[in-house]
Amino acid sequence: MIGQTILHYKILEKLGEGGMGEVFKAQDTKLDRFVALKFLPSQLIASEDDKARFIQEAKAASAMNHPNVCTIYDIQENDGQLFIVMEFVEGKTLKDKRDSISEKQILEIGIQAAEGLAAAHEKGIVHRDIKPENIMIRKDGIAQIMDFGLAKLYSGSEVSRLTKAGTTMGTMGYMSPEQVQGLDVDHRTDIFSLGVVLYELLAGESPFKGMHETAIMYEIVNIDAPPLSTIKKDIDPQLDDIILECLEKDKDERCQSAKELAKDLRKVKRSTGHRKSRVYNVNESAKLGTTSGAITKNEISSGSFINNIFNSRNFYISISSLLLIIAIISGWLYLTNASNSNATEVRSSVLLPRGVKLTNTFHGSDMAISPDGKFITFVGTDSTGTTKLWLRPVNSLRAKPLAVVNIFCFPFWSPDSRYIAYFTNNKLLKIPFNGGEPVTICEISSPGFAGGSWSKNGTIVFLPSYLDGIYKVSADGGKPESLIKIDTSKNWGGLRWPYFLPDGKHFLFTTISNVYGSLSHNKAGYSVYIASVDNPRARLFLNLPTNVQYSNGYIFFVRQGALYARRFDPDNLEFSGQSIPLITNIQYYAGDACGVFSVSDNGKIIYQQSIEQNQTIVSLDRKGNIQKKLFTANIRYNASLSPNSKMIAFDSYNNSESNQDIWIYNISRDITSRFTFNSAAEMAPVWSPDSKQLIFSSSRSGKSNSLYIKDINGTGKVRPFLSENKFRHKNTIATDWSGDGKYIAFQSQNFENKNSRHDIFIKPLTGGKKPFIFLATDFNEGGARFSPNGKWLAYWSNQSGNYQIYISSFSGRNKWQVTNIQNLSWSPWWIDQGKEICYETSDEKIFGVKVRENETGLSFSKPFVIMDFGKYGRNVNVLTIDKSGDRFIAGIPNGKSKVSSITMISNWVQEINK
Length: 914
Hints:
Elements: E1 5-6, E2 9-18, E3 21-28, E4 33-39, H1 48-62, E5 72-78, E6 81-87, E7 91-93, H2 94-97, H3 103-122, E8 125-126, E9 135-138, E10 143-145, E11 152-155, E12 158-159, H4 177-180, H5 188-203, H6 213-222, H7 237-246, H8 258-270, H9 282-288, H10 297-304, E13 325-326, E14 346-348, E15 350-351, E16 357-358, E17 367-369, E18 375-381, E19 387-393, E20 400-404, E21 412-413, E22 419-424, E23 427-432, E24 439-443, E25 452-454, E26 459-462, E27 470-474, E28 481-484, E29 492-500, E30 506-513, E31 527-532, E32 539-542, E33 549-551, E34 554-559, E35 562-569, E36 574-575, E37 580-583, E38 588-589, E39 594-595, E40 597-599, E41 604-608, E42 615-620, E43 626-633, E44 635-641, E45 647-654, E46 659-666, E47 671-674, E48 682-687, E49 693-698, E50 706-711, E51 719-720, E52 730-737, E53 743-749, E54 758-764, E55 772-775, E56 781-786, E57 792-797, E58 804-809, E59 815-817, E60 829-831, E61 836-841, E62 845-854, E63 857-860, E64 864-868, E65 877-881, E66 888-893, E67 902-906, H11 908-913
Antiparallel strand pairs: 1-2, 2-3, 3-4, 4-6, 5-6, 7-9, 8-11, 9-10, 11-12, 13-15, 14-67, 16-18, 17-18, 18-19, 19-20, 21-22, 22-23, 23-24, 25-26, 26-27, 27-28, 29-30, 30-31, 31-32, 33-34, 34-35, 35-36, 35-37, 38-39, 40-41, 41-67, 42-43, 42-66, 44-45, 45-46, 46-47, 48-49, 49-50, 50-51, 52-53, ...
Helix pairs in contact: 3-5, 3-8, 5-7, 7-8
């Protein structure tokens, strides 16, 4: 294009390019002056409405004539390409000069930029992309605001956007909270952005320091910027206050006009008096209601947050401020100035309702985006501990609860985005997206669940249990019909995540290996198959352990921790081209082969980054106070305190070796040592009463998880505890060893009996030693623990719909339901010599129930709170309790974990095509 003459503009050189197009220096041959031409990218003017909207706003911007605003001379079109003719400014951007300017110069630049914004705001124009790259410092020292191509015309309630409703524009790090959340903006968004620019110039660092986009967005919306005085000790306190007022989250609390901002900055510049100290003495602090003494930078940063969602040390989702964040906004054009590269794929973040914690179970995803991309549904637990199904419009901050559910909800949408289907209380239900009474589609015998999908033909395929096959039922209701059963000859241990293709007949589903806890997935059994409601005979589709979804001609799947897309013809059911990685380090649940993502039909993806917990294991007293910090570990499933209270056995996954083993921590010696050495997944250690042996679950046979035993002194070998030839059940896990040493309780699954789920078994260690069934029903039972006197067993079961604690006599003749709650989190413990049962709930509390023996059996007190460990934040894990109930062993996040938000990507189709 250089050397060409377009209309009466001769192109001389290229100045740069960015998200808003290419910029060239040109000579106006009519008026004999230099100008800058900005050629807009075609996607910004794809329709006549887009073009008209942009021209309207550009005309408004061209009406400005202010020394601190770059003048727009004209808007022209040549061969269908729209371009803006602007004043050519010789100088350097503030980004290029910011390392060489004094505080006095910073104040002058701030004053001029504020005055330029004031002139624009008076004409109803918002810039929306104030940043150092868009402030030009001319050779004569005058600051000019560039690139009003992002301007938004606003007048009263009428809003005209450069972008379509619900989108967000701006540059990451400088956007206001309302921009980040996709809300309507006004002139105060420019004041926030200018505040960020001035903060950076004065402090030498950004007020929002997240390592990744989502972390930065979270800080902008939630974390107050530390005062400049904590970074720059000699800062004028009046200037500090001005900048912090510009950075208020609530725009009503923010500086209300750029004109006033310029006035305030001018006062600071004129000030020649002594600067006031921000370090108050004790008496001054009492008067002001502040804390005496200086606040250090370290105190501010560590108090702001502990752990970044993408490996930064500076982000931790604390209970006191926020339980979790979901990445939801309709998306924006990620715009940069002429020096930045063009970007179309955009990621965005937004908050959950206050006090709501996202419930994403270890089985898979409890979130889904609607096919039309307008709504996100998710499962969240509120501050009362009640788990609900929520609905969140993409272009709004408000989410509303739709129904009370349990944690195995797994919602999925109808193809027209009008209904949400979900599982709870032994039912498959549907509810209108805009609220109303849930309607039962069908009854289900077991509430295990493992996903469902709704076809355009009105058929739903679903899994009533993660131990069952796939069924179909009409979305209008009816009796479910069996479609696909578990084929043990193919090493299938279960089925998961059915998903309909566009024809409404073919669907995909995932198979799980019958080796529970396998982490390598090198064994047969983990694959994706395709079948049809008309012909349920399944054939192999992908030889990968993943869930799959379809959108816009692509199949999405997870491989080695990354989300991939590969072109797919839904008519011929064939792949073409190469797999394209879209997202690295996606959250993935290995045992159920589930990556946490959901795709819409209009180019949106929601997903969750991976979570890797690293905790400090501590000893807590009965009031929840830390008695002692013990050790640091990534405990995968559970831990067990030895009866002599000297050791803690736990299972831990080693990333470098890609295996999971049993480890032992010696409390008195403060030493951690590895107990098992095997490539198999080994878990759930249980101590013998004399603290000399451990029994644990392992897949070392290569067939299924079974029980093994080993002496603590290390002299003996690992010995099989159950004979697999005689005991053919799957996924066997020991839960307790009786105090007299005569019995071991374990839970297992019987795949040969389709009506049986998790069952409780007892194996005697004397006599015939043959295991026998203690409890086997059509429901799930497990977590059995012997009372100290050996007369009773406490366990959990979902026979009432939600998981509850029960106690049964060892003979099995008598049984009592102990709890009636919706948020049981862990198995029961006997404490205080069997006089009390305690259990954990999902709202970070330990409850106790007094147990009394009488002539008729047992009686129980009302549940009472023993401990509320929410003060340590979310993701606290109570691992085990000693027999007295005076010492609780818990894992507390230590700032080294990777905690994830949920993110939304817009425009992934354009990114793939590019």
